[in-house]
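User: Let's play a game. I give you a shape written as tokens, and you guess the letters that built it. Ready? Here's round one.
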């Protein structure tokens, strides 16, 4: 009995010790994370470090509070408006002696989004303030931003490779046939090529012609912006003769970049840090290459958004439009509609600006958001729309209530079309000797029957529904844009347009960004644009998410990120981008075959997005690749 008591006391002691250790670790970590939160009081003379982590997006996804602690992968995203606000403030801030762009971890963004950052960088340089950019190597998106800097640095062992938009898209017709899957396609629109991968083994002539025009317009705009920012760079020549110029430099990519005027200097991160320190000085007792730094988070905290003046509400529709509720980075119909209605009821708004960065998605969710926006108009509020990098299909649907639509010349928009996909598996199960049979009381009993196929009556009804939704879509656009339905149908048909062409054909009113849309909304509300404030109608992150963000900042500062490690090898990053395209294709296929039957979504728009995918899509892609290997 004494032995049992002694063992029990030992177990209790071990338990108490473990609890104590856990509590010490928990509160120690909590203290460290809270200490890492932005601190406005730390701002002193130095270099504003703008470290672009992952993609630049309109609205970052909410950080998983347990991913980092569990050793999982955390999504790296940088909010566009934070970067632009910091750069705009730095132009006239005497404490900021130089702006440093760290692009090692940058993985891109939609063309219009990247161009907005590049423009803000150029505005800093125009004041005479030095702007220094560094990356191991640059691809197209990063180079457009860096081209607006005073000095462009890269590592002598890496370099810059510019490829232009374009590439291959996966087509699944052969796979679907081998698996015996019968993909029932319902669509309207000559150019609604989102469903072509399930119907064909290649692009249709109509889709190819439309994509060539779109990609050509985006590339022309990119070349125009780079040439304007850095006239001495022979970018067009380098892109056309890259292999020849690199061969002439004996395979030294950095030397070929220097010869073509693409970059100014080569050096490692220590050499670059010493160059920055020549301007702002270096802290004592720190490693070589250190310099007096102003962290972006601290700088934003020291330059808060104004809180006085009449309120202009800004609601963000970012990501795929889905039904129900979701967090930031996904445009859930119920969530966004509720945010708008709550803002109208509680915020004393004088106008509403809808910031759209979405390829569309669910028709029902898009309509729910549109109806909430109409409530603002019913209350007499002016409504303007600011299109960011992407406002296509369902993203255009939610834009139709606007009094005025702003877009960038390289915004991706249009895609006025509707489609649906329903898979059935009667041929698949027959391959293993399984069949389906039963009784029906009506022609629609059991429809859609995934194991026996759809009936002609069901196909007729769903195709009719698709055509009806398309007519409604055309009617909304015709009423909004003051065009005839016939004209909308002509420029619709699912075709995707660049912002410049969209303005010419009447889908967009003016070129401009979010600030322009806010100023126009203020003028329509008879307010002084200089005396209004923006109120973002969005859900505040919970305490767990805030701790996760602080954890992520500390991890990035102490250990670097996966993207940073990829930045050490330009070609590894380019290969990772192509793997990301595969993962995204897998995700698109999964969402199409398991999602809503009626969608207003632009799948082809993803070709302009940074190659990223959700974790489960990457995991599935990895599994498929591993199984394909011998």
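Assistant: Ready! My guess for every position:
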């Amino acid at each position: 009995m004494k032995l049992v008591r002694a063992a029990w006391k030992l177990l209790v002691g071990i338990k108490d010790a473990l609890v104590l250790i856990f509590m010490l670790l928990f509160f120690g970590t909590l203290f460290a994370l809270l200490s890492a939160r932005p601190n406005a009081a730390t701002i002193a003379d130095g270099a504003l470090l703008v470290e672009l982590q992952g993609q630049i997006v309109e609205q970052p996804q909410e950080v998983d509070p347990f991913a980092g602690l569990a050793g999982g992968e955390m999504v790296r995203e940088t909010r566009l408006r934070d970067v632009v606000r910091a750069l705009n403030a730095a132009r006239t801030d005497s404490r900021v002696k130089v702006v440093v762009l760290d692009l090692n971890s940058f993985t891109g963004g939609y063309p219009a989004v990247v161009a907005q950052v590049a423009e803000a960088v150029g505005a800093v340089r125009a004041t005479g303030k030095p702007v220094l950019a560094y990356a191991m190597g640059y691809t197209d998106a990063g180079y457009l931003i860096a081209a607006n800097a005073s000095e462009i640095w890269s590592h002598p062992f890496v370099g810059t490779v510019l490829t232009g938009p374009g590439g291959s898209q996966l087509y699944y017709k052969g796979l679907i046939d081998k698996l015996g899957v019968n993909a029932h396609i319902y669509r309207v629109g000559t150019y609604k090529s989102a469903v072509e991968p399930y119907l064909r083994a290649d692009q249709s002539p109509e889709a190819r012609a439309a994509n060539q025009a779109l990609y050509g317009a985006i590339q022309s705009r990119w070349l125009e912006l780079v040439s304007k920012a850095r006239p001495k760079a022979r970018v067009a020549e380098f892109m056309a003769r890259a292999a020849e110029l690199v061969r002439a430099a004996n395979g030294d990519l950095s030397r070929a970049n220097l010869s073509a005027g693409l970059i100014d200097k080569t050096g490692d991160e220590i050499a670059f840090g010493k160059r920055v320190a020549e301007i702002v000085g270096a802290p004592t007792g720190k490693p070589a290459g250190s310099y007096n730094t102003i962290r972006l988070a601290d700088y934003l905290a020291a330059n808060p958004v104004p809180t006085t003046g009449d309120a202009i509400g800004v609601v963000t529709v970012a990501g795929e439009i889905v039904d129900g509720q979701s967090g930031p980075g996904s445009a859930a119909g119920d969530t966004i509609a509720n945010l708008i209605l709550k803002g109208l009821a509680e915020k004393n708004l004088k106008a509403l600006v809808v910031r759209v960065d979405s390829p569309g998605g669910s028709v029902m969710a898009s309509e729910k958001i549109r109806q909430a926006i109409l409530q603002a108009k019913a209350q007499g509020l002016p409504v303007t729309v600011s299109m960011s990098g992407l406002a296509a299909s369902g993203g255009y649907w939610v834009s139709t209530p606007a009094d005025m639509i702003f877009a960038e010349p390289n915004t991706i928009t249009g895609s006025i079309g509707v489609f649906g996909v329903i898979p059935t598996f009667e041929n698949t199960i027959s391959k293993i000797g399984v069949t389906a049979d039963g009784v029906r009381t009506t022609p629609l009993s059991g429809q859609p029957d995934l194991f026996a196929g759809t009936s002609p009556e069901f196909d007729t009804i769903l195709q009719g529904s698709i055509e009806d939704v398309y007519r409604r879509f055309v009617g909304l656009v015709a009423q909004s844009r003051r065009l005839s339905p016939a004209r909308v149908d002509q420029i619709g048909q699912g075709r995707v347009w660049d912002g410049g062409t969209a303005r010419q054909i009447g889908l967009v009113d003016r070129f401009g960004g979010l600030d322009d849309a806010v100023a126009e909304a203020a003028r329509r509300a008879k307010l002084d644009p200089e005396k209004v404030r923006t109120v973002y109608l969005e859900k505040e992150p919970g305490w767990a998410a805030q701790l996760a963000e602080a954890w992520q900042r500390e991890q990035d500062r102490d250990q670097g990120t996966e993207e940073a490690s990829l930045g050490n090898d330009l070609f590894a990053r380019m290969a990772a981008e192509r793997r990301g395209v595969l993962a995204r294709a897998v995700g698109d296929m999964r969402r199409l075959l398991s999602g809503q039957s009626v969608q207003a979504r632009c799948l082809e728009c993803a070709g302009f997005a940074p190659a990223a995918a959700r974790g489960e899509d990457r995991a599935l892609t990895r599994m498929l690749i591993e199984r394909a290997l011998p």
